[in-house]
Amino acid sequence: MGDRVRIQVDGATIMVESGMTLAAAMMMSGLAAMRRSPGGDPRGVLCAMGSCHECRATVDGVRGVKTCMIEVKEGQKIERDQPLGLASLEAKIDRSIRTVEFDLAVIGAGPAGLAAACAAAELGRSVVIIDESIRPGGRIWSYRHEPPLAARSWLERARQAGVQRLQGYTVYRGQPGELEVAGVTDGNRVRVICHKIIVATGARERFLPFPGWTLPGVVGAGALQSLIKGGLDVRDRTLLVAGSGPLLLAVARLANESGARVTLAEQASFADRSGLAIPLLLSPSRWRPALNLWNALADVEKSSSSWVKEARGDGRVEEVVLRTPAGDRVMAVDGLAVGYGLIPESRVAAGLGCDLDESGAVRVDAHQQSSIPGILCAGELTGVAGNEAAIDEGLIAGIVAAGRNPQSRLLARVRRHRFWGQALESAHPLRDEVLQLATEDVIACRCEDVATGDLSGVTSFREARLIHRLGMGPCQGRVCESSPICQRLTGSDTIRPPWMVVPSGLSTRVSQVRDSE
Amino acid sequence: MNQRHHVIILGAGIAGVCCAREFVDRGFKVSLIESGPAAGVQGATAAGMGHIVVNDGDPEVLRLCLRGRELWRERLNEEETDQSYWRSGTLWMAEDDSQMEALKGALGRLQSAGVESELIEGERLFKVEPALARDLVGGLRIPHDGVVYAPKVTANLWNELEQVESYFHTAVVEIGDGWVQLANGSRLAGDAVIVATGISLLDHFTGAAGEWARQFPILPREGHLAITARGTRILGHHVVEAGYQKGAHQVSEEAVACAILPRPTDQLCLGSCRRPGRGGPVDAQLLQRIIDRCERFVPGVSSLPILRTWTGSRAATSDGKPLIGPMPGLKRTWLLGGFEGLGITQAPAAAELLCQRVLGEACILDPGAWDPARMRSAVVGRLHG
């Protein structure tokens, strides 16, 4: 701990702490603006979990690397907004593909994926987990040096059961029985042949556009959590954590414990959230964590029925207009974290052909089986219900994938978790005011700089995409799809490869090299 | 016909919208019927690469391409069209001496038709396009060819039209002589019906017209494309391998050829392939072959990040030429389609020609070459002989 490494950003050497994510290291070094948008605006980290692609840069000659998904390394060279030179094309990328074969491939190493892999491996199946992050644990258990206590037992069980991992790999294409994956830093390819697949890709944050939301320093709520865990030092920083949902509490707690001056603003009213009292009373196992959380937030300023109306700043966020029941309040901040709950990350499952419901969650039966034979799904992508639900669903999926029947007690527990998830959801209804924050000038699609006003009168996704370029950038619509402007559009697009944009194209053979002149 | 008359156009792709413009400009009442949600977002208009190329394969085809290119140059302005038009020029690339000879032949035909073009041999090729593979022997450069982003251009043209009665989300179930039956039960009749529905061009005819349509069907030819991320425009020209035209003329076989189109958005569109089909799911192996073929001409291009891949379908006819003229057996119903891969280039010229025919005006091009009735004899002879 505490070792330092040297990295080079646009030729300038900076010292950073080892083990950090590159995104956190760059933000720490005052480089919150990581690139320019097509319209020339500065952009930085938004999601910090590999969805939004806003933090991408050229790293060691590889273009389009998401800096939130990789770790700093001695001598690493980062270039921002580098025009593509032919010389860099000659940096030969190894596109040979190696093939590995397993009984079961699990996509995602969060609670659901780890539990699924352990359950199947302990029943004698050969299992590989494919996970995009630097280390296993998913977003909730992400860590830099030591895994959190809750994750440790699962990681140990996985090790003992012989679960293999492709850590730092993204699934970009596949079908039942076969997945193609690429390394997030180098694009190296692996073909995974597998009898069964468990998709455990979790959830991503819901972002609602508001004036100033594209300023560097405005990040997701979960993103702040990931950045702090990734090494971002927030001591003595003034941070506003806003939006909606229980995640805000955990984020505010972590920021507070990490030495930041935290203000917490929840858009839902106290009355809405008091609806949780009865489900909480019925669920004794949640009493102690709830009490702990409450105590930990004792010295954090908290308000309900409050939301961010606007973020302002020159090149990065400097102040925020917070709407509170007492009126508008302008706050000077060092950072703003805003998220409006979680939505299922079901793209890989949809790419594999699984049916989704109207909320975008994968439809599964009580045994976590999707509409496609041999493909099971576990965790938040089947409906957001928290990590206990994810673990139990993962166990069920792993047991079923191994050809066994899960115990009815386990199935009953999942039903209770789902009830709790629904109670949480209905305790945080989104108010009309936050759905109407995106005025005409507010960017709706960050990748392609499409303004909300550009879409007035547009009724279909096809028109929004093809004519106005909404969702045509590297995030493939992951950020804008949940925004109110998209919710009113009819139709949807099919999920085609690449399911996630990977740094080095789609080709999987060794290429010829241009002769030197 | 005069200005009080009513023209019904089926299909709001690039051809249908160009055609609507011709009639609106002349003061006619126009109704436009489209199965999709908006203009320019369906069919080959939505899925195509968006190249404006002059094709020298046949003198009539060349004239239609040239007129189309000329009209685009008049109507679109590189500065004003929101990154949807760019005069990139086409560079046809030769891998060996025999292809170079073929390009020389093409140069002769183009120059005698007055088309600005030049051969580029040896080192000069790599000065013009440094990203090309060093073992290429030369190229044919056609500087005034270009790139349009067809969905946007079509939408812009559509937005400029005033007083067009539009029916979106509206499917057609039957087409007769001067009338169409809609899926919603209603029937529209006009003085002229113009069918510009791409691969569905001949799907809804009955009786003698239906018989003709079955005899000379539209042959849908599927293509696959991929597009790179912004910041990857390493080419200044639309670069196409000389062998492309050979592939374009094979109707039944599968053909893959390098065609890389730089988009004004600082992206590259990678193609191309042709095979029978209506545009199904992306075929990973086929896409691999396309990208490998592009890599052969532009080393390193296969390692650029790909944002999206998609398929689409071109409407080809049995003799490889478009249908611009009256539907055989009908008097008030006209065809505008079957452009295969040249629809975007030819659309404004074909629309102009069709409008001139419908109204009995003097035609700027010879209409006989495109008259659907040509299919009566020659092709029957070929198919059965």
The named CATH superfamily of the largest domain in chain A: FAD/NAD(P)-binding domain
Instruction: Give the overall form of chain B.
Output: globular
In whole angstroms, the N-to-C terminal distance of chain B is 41 Å
Strand fraction band of chain B?
Answer: 25-35%
CATH superfamily of the largest domain in chain B: FAD/NAD(P)-binding domain
CATH class of the largest domain in chain B: Alpha Beta
Q: DSSP strand (E) fraction of chain A?
A: 15-25%
The total number of structural domains of chain A is 4
Instruction: Indicate the low-confidence ranges of chain A by residue numbers.
Output: 510-517
CA-based gyration radius of chain B: 20 Å
Find the CATH topology of the largest domain in chain A. FAD/NAD(P)-binding domain
Strand order of the largest sheet of chain B: 6-7-5-15-16-17-14-18
Helix percent band of chain B? 25-40%
What is the typical, i.e. mean, pLDDT of chain B? 92
CATH architecture of the largest domain in chain A: 3-Layer(bba) Sandwich
How much is the average pLDDT of chain A?
92
Proper CATH architecture of the largest domain in chain B: 3-Layer(bba) Sandwich
The Cα radius of gyration of chain A reads 22 Å
Keyword list:
heterodimer; A: 517 residues; alpha/beta; Ubiquitin-like (UB roll); FAD/NAD(P)-binding domain; 4 domains; 7-stranded mixed sheet; 5-stranded mixed sheet; 15 helices; 26 strands; 25% helix; globular; disordered C terminus; B: 385 residues; alpha+beta; D-Amino Acid Oxidase, Chain A, domain 2; 2 domains; 8-stranded mixed sheet; 6-stranded mixed sheet
Could you characterize the architecture of this molecule?
The complex is a heterodimer of chains A (517) and B (385). The termini of chain A are far apart. Chain A folds into four domains: 4-84, 2Fe-2S iron-sulphur cluster binding domain, sarcosine oxidase, alpha subunit, N-terminal domain (Ubiquitin-like (UB roll)); 97-204 and 343-406, FAD/NAD(P)-binding domain; 232-340, 3-Layer(bba) Sandwich (FAD/NAD(P)-binding domain), CATH 3.50.50; 438-487, no CATH class. Chain A is globular, with a radius of gyration of 22 Å. Chain A is an alpha/beta fold. Residues 510-517 of chain A have low confidence and may be disordered. In chain A, strands 8, 9, 10, 11, 12, 13 and 24 form a seven-stranded mixed beta sheet that branches. Chain A contains 15 helices and 26 strands. Chain B contains eleven helices and 20 strands. Chain B has helices at residues 14-25, 43-47, 59-75, 97-112, 123-128, 150-160, 207-215, 244-248, 284-297, 343-359, 378-384, and strands at residues 6-10, 29-33, 51-52, 85-86, 90-94, 118-121, 138-142, 146-148, 164-167, 172-175, 179-182, 187-189, 192-195, 219-228, 238-241, 255-263, 267-276, 306-316, 323-326, 333-337. At the A-B interface, α2 and α14 of A face α6, α9 and β18 of B.
